[in-house]
Design goal:
The protein is an alpha/beta fold. It is built from 21 helices and 15 strands. Among the domains are: 2-91, 2-Layer Sandwich (Gyrase A, domain 2); 170-269, no CATH class; 460-578, Isoleucyl-tRNA Synthetase, Domain 1 (Orthogonal Bundle). The protein has helices at residues 2-18, 47-55, 59-70, 93-106, 136-154, 170-186, 201-214, 222-225, 239-280, 291-296, 299-309, 344-357, 375-384, 421-428, 430-439, 450-455, 461-481, 488-493, 501-523, 527-546, 554-578; strands at residues 32-34, 43-45, 76-82, 86-91, 120-124, 158-165, 287-290, 313-316, 319-322, 333-336, 362-368, 392-397, 400-404, 407-408, 446-449. The chain has a five-stranded parallel beta sheet. It has a four-stranded antiparallel beta sheet with strand order 1-2-4-3. The chain is globular and about 90 Å long. It binds one RNA strand through helix 2, helix 6, strand 9, strand 10 and helix 12.
RNA sequence: GCGCCUGUAGCUCAGUUGGAUAGAGUACCAGUUUCCGAAACUGGGGGUCACAGGUUCGAUUCCUGUCAGGCGCACCA
């Protein structure tokens, strides 16, 4: 509809210039927007004001000319000029009703478009280190990433959802060592558990499984384990040096193969849990991409060689540095440490190179906002390797600060104090949790009060939207109970019976849906879809309270049933994109 | 100190990319059910859009500065 209006105005302007009513000027992009106030009609255009300056004419005068030419278009009943020079359009009844037929004809495909047809997008999200279960902090990224993916899919993109598994590096060594030390305790060894090791109960579970499988086979005397290990922090030492020395001893005492077994047991068990949590939370993936595979396949080394060949690496203090300052970063970054190990950044360079080489048109990284300082160096590396860094969109998700009542909950994976995603889902449900997360803009800091979400779960907006859907279903159940039925064809033929303000408002609301999907997808802003659904539900509830649908006037009744059927369809589609169920009764 | 994000009703947040009289929810107050589900609806009060300048027909929106909060500034991941 916007496009039709745009073309109409464009043509009228060309006509006016040709006839000399307007001077020869360049035409700007014509903007059509929906009116905030229905007293202003359905759509408004500000073109007269935009042209006022270049045409050196009064905006209202320009508008008058445009209106004269445009007024006789068949899908418009009224055009008028308002305020400083807005041109307001009111749609004809036929053209407003059409949306109901469109919704029902398209069914669960309504809202889809082909904007992204033929294009491939990759969305990487969550990608939490597999050192422990997902907690509520990851929930926002999971909800956001999965809805962004669905939105892109709705507008025609071929979407590839991916989780980057950081299964290499020091943090994972700490986890493996934590598991082993708990196992040693289970075998009867006595020592103080390191302050910097992972202390969560899940580590105990993994250690218990290890003990169950292998008995005391991997047990070593604590004197050996702690040989030449410097004091831990509580004893006046350095917690980092303490844990690093323990890792070295663990590898030496167990040997490479056994150490790897312990490592993999911890890794696999945690990844399995993460996969399960995400699936239960409605975040599905096409691929789990392993960092270790990138190192073992030599891709990391190849990426480093490529950078060396491009002359953007240099050696200093025994390490290899990437000259990211040449590409706008604050400082240069190490890719190979003086001990010969590649850094996480090196893996990430190789990973992004791999993504680009897979031929995606758009590559999206959903990161926690604490990683924002990381963006310049990743983009720098891509530019240095001759890639178009504009293809990479890094979407930052701000933290959700957890409260229990007025009390802020401090969370730390290391200390084992956190509310897991699973607990959240069990407490308030997947639907409420997802909707709640997605309702706020991603760049908005968010207060998540667990008690509020739990105690007021009936007031949660998600129920408001779901209830609208259930209410429509209930009307149709009632219809059947009365021995009546809905005839869609008859309803569609009588849509012009629908002249109440509430009905006209619903026509408008329904017709906004496709625009909302498009805008939300292109701007990566799922929250506008959530808000739209609340608005649509409100329009429906208001209508419900003001009018009856099952009435004696059979034509009117069929028309109303047809309208609410379309509302039901759109709510179902919208909730589906967000990953929330649309129950038939609640 | 530097960089990124944020600042809108008592509280939680929208604000269609610069438009018309800044909106919802919640909380508070007053109402609505012999009638398709009251998890709903109707009405009411509540604002220096953090502050100060600038850009223009027009600024909550864009620019600059100040103040306040969050996050980040590793040879960790």
């Amino acid at each position: 509809m916007k496009d039709q209006l745009k073309k109409l105005i464009e043509q009228s302007l060309l006509d006016l210039i040709a006839s000399g009513a307007l001077p020869e000027i360049d035409l700007p992009e014509i903007q059509i927007e929906r009116t905030k106030d229905k007293a202003h009609g359905d759509f408004a255009c500000n073109i007269a004001m935009m042209l006022a300056r270049t045409a050196k004419m009064n905006p209202r005068q320009i508008a008058t000319h445009i209106v004269e030419v445009v007024a006789n278009a068949d899908f418009i009943t009224k055009v008028d000029i308002a305020g400083p020079g807005f041109i307001n359009f009111t749609l004809s009844a036929d053209s407003a009703q059409q949306i109901v037929k469109d919704v029902l004809a398209a069914g669960n495909q309504f809202g889809q478009s082909k904007i992204g047809a033929g294009k491939r997008a990759q969305v990487e999200f969550v990608s939490a280190n597999p050192t422990g279960p997902l907690h509520v902090g990851h929930g926002r990224g999971a909800a956001y990433g999965s809805v962004v993916s669905s939105l892109l899919s709705e507008i025609g993109f071929d979407v590839h959802r991916e989780y980057y598994v950081n299964d290499a590096g020091r943090q994972m060594d700490i986890l493996a060592t934590s598991v082993w030390l708990r196992y040693l305790t289970a075998c009867g060894e006595q020592f103080t558990f390191p302050s910097n090791a992972y202390k969560g109960d899940y580590v105990l579970d993994i250690a218990a499984a290890l003990k169950n499988d292998l008995g005391d086979e991997l047990s070593r005397a604590s004197l050996e384990v702690f040989a030449n290990v410097p004091d831990d922090e509580p004893q006046g030492g350095d917690k980092e040096l303490h844990i690093d020395a323990l890792i070295v001893n663990a590898k030496a005492l167990l040997g490479e193969a056994e150490y790897r077994n312990v490592f993999d047991l911890g890794l696999n068990s945690i990844i399995a849990g993460i996969k399960e949590d995400l699936m239960d939370f409605g975040a599905d993936y096409d691929e789990w991409f392993s960092e270790r595979s990138l190192m073992e396949s030599g891709d990391v080394d190849k990426a480093i060689e490529q950078l060396k060949a491009s002359n953007v690496l240099y050696e200093k203090d025994g390490a290899w540095w990437f000259k990211s300052t040449d590409y706008g970063d604050e400082k240069d970054r190490v890719v190979v440490r003086d001990n010969g190990q590649t850094t996480y950044f090196a893996s990430d360079i190789a990973y992004h190179l791999n993504k680009f080489n897979r031929g995606f048109d758009t590559i999206i990284d959903v990161w926690g906002s604490d990683h924002h300082g990381y963006i310049p160096r990743v983009k720098a590396s891509l530019t240095a390797m001759g890639k178009d860094q504009e293809k990479l969109k890094v979407l930052l998700v701000q933290f959700a600060v957890l409260y229990r009542g007025a009390e802020k909950i401090a969370m730390s994976t290391r200390s084992g104090q956190f509310v897991t995603l699973k607990e959240l889902r069990e407490e308030i449900g997947k639907d409420a949790a997802r909707f709640f997360y997605v309702m706020r803009g991603a760049d908005q800091h968010m207060d998540f009060d667990l008690e509020l979400a739990k105690s007021q779960s009936n007031d949660n907006p998600v129920y408001y939207v779901q209830y609208a859907h259930a209410r429509v279903c209930s009307v149709f159940r009632q219809l059947a109970e009365r021995g009546l039925s809905w005839d869609a064809k008859q309803g569609e033929a009588n849509l012009n019976c629908l002249t109440e303000d509430h009905e006209l408002a619903l026509f408008t609301a329904l017709s906004r849906y496709s625009e909302i999907i498009e805008t939300a997808a292109l701007n990566y802003t799922p929250h506008i879809l959530a808000h739209y659904l609340i608005d649509l539900a409100r329009d429906f509830h208001t209508y419900y309270n003001a009018h009856h649908f099952i009435v004696d006037d059979i034509e009117l009744s069929q028309a109303r049933l047809t309208l609410i059927s379309a509302v039901k369809q759109v709510i179902e589609n919208g909730l589906g994109v967000i990953g929330v169920s649309a129950p038939e009764s609640m």
